[in-house]
Design brief:
Blueprint (H helix, E strand, L loop, with lengths): L1 H7 L5 H17 L6 H17 L4 H14 L1 H6 L2 H11 L3 H16 L1 H7 L8 H4 L9 H19 L2 H7 L6 H8 L6 H15 L10 H7 L15 H9 L10 H16 L1 H11 L2 H21 L2 H4 L4 H9 L5 H21 L8 H10 L6 H19 L1
């Protein structure tokens, strides 16, 4: 009771509350199974009201709740910890904490023993993209920060197997379907946020924010040096991964399997038709970015999915309909420009990544990657023997 009282009272007693929280963490580490539910309920209450009261202990409280979720999930679920974490994920502006909270909820979904009674509803993460009156009193910077946190949360969810199986489940795919359907509405800020989410989710290089297709196509040209090849980024490791062929040619690639499942769910949700709608009804900046995304998506779909899945929602006929419709001249102009850009992008994507670093060449030579074949070695030895013979003669 004394510890609960110390956490509840917020009258310049920060040191007392810190010591109470340290005691709670110590009890949790020593015996997670015997952790008192009363302390968990106090932490849940603090997490539910900490954002409105601007409590400085909110971050530490959320961290302890995430630890309780992992160490004693049954008690965490019974005390209402799931709703507290979901509420703070949707209202948070702290990216690192958002990823931690999503990891705790995905831990509940990953275990069959807690998946059923935890009742985790990750579809609520799509609310910031779908509710246009959500936090309408905030300024533009706060909304962008909120979009960033929600994007990181969705990336954490959709990049994991438990998250994608839950968020994109055929029986309840309302969250994914809502994100795709909102692209049909002329909300430019939301459209830009969703396009950025799709670029990050699929691991595609983002083109520059421009209204010229030439600049955007140059940024996604695979033969040009990429930004992740810089010394401050992946450097030689990232360049070698992009340039060199994979050693395991016959082993299934788990990353590609996950990406294939993600692409198929987006196809089922009608993402390609929604992107075509974005191309012909948005301004030039968003239309350029959506066109590049459509070309990259078509490339990935034809590489990773079987032909039976590629014809579910063909977007190019719909784009050609807009290109041939003279009744709507602005949409026709955007569609014709997009068709020409897609044709150019198709030729660009046929190119292979070209190495651009002397360091990578030195590493390959030192590791034996540049050794000549057996026939070349034999031929070089034969020429050397003949040269010696001519010198003797």
């Amino acid at each position: 009771m004394c510890v609960n009282r110390s956490l509840d009272v917020n009258l310049r007693n920060d040191m007392e509350r810190i010591q109470a929280l340290r005691l709670i963490r110590r009890l949790l580490v020593l015996s997670p199974a015997d952790f008192p539910p009363a302390l968990t309920r106090s932490l849940v209450a603090l997490a539910n009201g900490g954002a409105e009261e601007k409590d400085r202990m909110l971050r530490a409280c959320l961290g302890v709740l995430a630890e309780i979720c992992v160490l004693n999930p049954d008690m965490f679920v019974s005390c209402g910890g799931v709703s507290a974490l979901l509420r703070n994920i949707a209202d948070s502006q702290m990216p690192r904490i958002v990823e931690c909270l999503c990891g705790a909820l995905l831990f509940l979904l990953d275990r069959p023993s807690t998946r059923r009674h935890a009742n985790v509803r990750l579809q609520s993460l799509a609310v910031p993209y779908c509710d246009f009156h959500w936090d309408s009193d905030r300024n533009r910077e706060d909304r962008e920060a909120r979009f960033l946190c929600v994007r990181l949360a969705l990336l954490s969810v959709l990049r994991s197997w438990p998250g994608i199986l839950h968020f994109c489940h055929p029986s309840n795919s309302s969250g994914l379907q809502a994100i795709v359907s909102v692209l049909y509405l002329k909300q430019l800020e939301v459209r830009k946020a969703i396009l950025d989410l799709l670029y990050d989710l699929l691991g595609l290089p983002q083109p520059e924010w421009t209204d010229e297709f030439s600049v955007a196509l140059e940024a996604v040209d695979p033969s040009h040096p990429q930004d992740i090849w810089r010394l401050s980024e992946g450097f030689v490791a990232a360049e070698g991964k992009a340039v060199l062929p994979h050693l395991a040619k016959f082993r299934p690639n788990i990353v590609e399997i996950h990406l294939s499942v993600l692409l198929y769910t987006f196809l089922e949700a009608g993402l390609l038709d929604a992107i075509v709608e974005v191309i012909v009804t948005s301004d030039t900046f968003i239309s350029v970015r959506a066109t590049i995304l459509l070309g990259e998506l078509l490339q990935l779909i034809h590489l990773l999915l079987p032909p039976e899945c590629c014809n579910i929602t063909p977007p190019l006929p719909n784009l050609m309909v807009h290109a041939s419709n003279a009744a709507n001249l602005p949409a026709q102009h955007l569609a014709l420009t997009a068709v020409a850009a897609l044709s150019h992008l198709h030729h660009l994507l046929k190119r292979r990544p070209a190495p651009a670093s002397l360091f990578l060449d030195q590493v390959l030579q030192a590791g034996g990657w540049m050794r000549p074949g057996v026939e070349q070695v034999v031929n070089s030895r034969g020429k050397h023997e003949k040269a010696k013979l001519y010198q003797v003669l």
